[in-house]
Each structure stands twice: as C-alpha cells, then as structure tokens.
Amino acid sequence: MALTLYAATVPSFRQILGSVAGLLAKAQAYCVEHSLAPEQIIQARLASDMLPFAYQVRSTATHSIGAIEGMRRGTFSPDRSAPPETFEALAQLVQQADAALAALDPAELDTLAGREVLFVAGERRLPFTGENFLLSFSQPNFYFHATTAYDILRWKGLQIGKRDYAGQLRMKG
Questions:
Q1: What string of DSSP letters covers 19-77?
Q2: What is the signed CA dihedral for 24, 29, 35, 37, rounded to 10 degrees?
Q3: Could you say which architecture CATH assigns to the domain 17-166?
Q4: What would the pLDDT profile of 91-123 be if each residue is shown by its tens digit?
C-alpha cells in the first residue's frame, strides 16, 4: 500500500494534539498545586523575541487543521489574532482541531495534493503544491510549536518527559 498524504500527516497531528491536550491539563494542575497565576505559564516565553506558550499551543491547531483548511481554499496566512488566554480556551481549541481532523475524509485530503497553495504573509507570497505545503511547511511548523510549548513547560518546572510529548503511540494490533 502506498503512503497517502492523509496517512503521512493526520494520524501524527492527532497524536501530538492529544499530547498537547495532556500538557495543558498538567500545566493547569501545576498552577493550582503551586499557587501560580495561570498567566505565568500561558504568557511564558523561552526568549523575549519568541511568542508565548498560548501562541505555541494555538499554532498546533493552525498548522494541522488550519493548514488543511488553507489547502482547501488555496491560500494560507498566519493567524495574527490574539491566542486564547485561559487553559480552558486553549484546551477547547486543541479539542476542536482534533475533532475536525477526526472528521476528515482521507480521500478528500489526498485530492488536494498537486493543487496550488499560496502562503501569504504581508508582502511575502510563497507558492506551494498542496503536498509540499503540508509536508515541508505546516508539518515542520506544527512540530516546532508543539515542541516549544513542551519546552516552556519544562522550563517553568513541570515534571514532564518524552512520553508526555509523544502522546498515545499507534501500536500494531
């Protein structure tokens, strides 16, 4: 069986979105346990020129289901709106992204391969084919933002590890 665009992306997006949901729950519990204001994590940045935890979490939705929606439209632009400011709203966003991915028709996603997708950010315009956009732009961005969210939580002191990041592995059987 040939590897499809759907198989190369959606199951892994869902796996990591599941882990991001778990990380959000652990971060919220950590704030309660340590009497921290949620903003101390939600607005945390690894460096002053990086965007905060909330943006990193939101970007996992942007670069998974948002990327697929961009493929459908033929154009994708970064989400410049303010990210959610509570753990509950971030969790809802991640859950909605996962639900939308779960509802995708695999055959539909595979039909988007070969279609033009234009990345637009200000004056910048980058033309892609659907598969190159998803595999060389959005998928790396998805993992970057998921990893950065994880790293912020580790930096803030949460006792999490690789298993928390990897989420539910897709085992044989």
A1: HHHHHHHHHHHHHHHTT--THHHHT--SSTTSPPHHHHHHHHHHTTHHHHHHHHHTEE-
A2: 20
A3: Up-down Bundle (1.20)
A4: 999 999 999 999 999 999 999 999 999 999 999
123 neighbors 39 (Cβ within 8 angstroms): no
**Angle at the Cα of 27 (from 90 to 147), degrees rounded to 5?**
75
Domain boundaries, the chain: 17-166
Q: 117 - beta bridge partners?
A: 128
Side-chain-side CA neighbours of residue 113 (13 Å): 15
Q: Are the C-beta atoms of residues 25 and 57 closer than 8 Å to each other?
A: no
Distance between CA atoms of residues 63 and 20, nearest Å: 14
Give percent helix, percent strand, percent coil of the chain, each to the nearest 5.
60, 10, 30
Query: Residue 69 and residue 152: Cα distance in Å, rounded?
Result: 28
**Burial (CB count <10 Å: 0-12, 13-18, 19+), residue 2:** exposed
Q: How many CB atoms lie within 10 A of CB 19?
A: 21
* Each residue's pLDDT tens digit, 140-160: 999 999 999 999 999 999 999
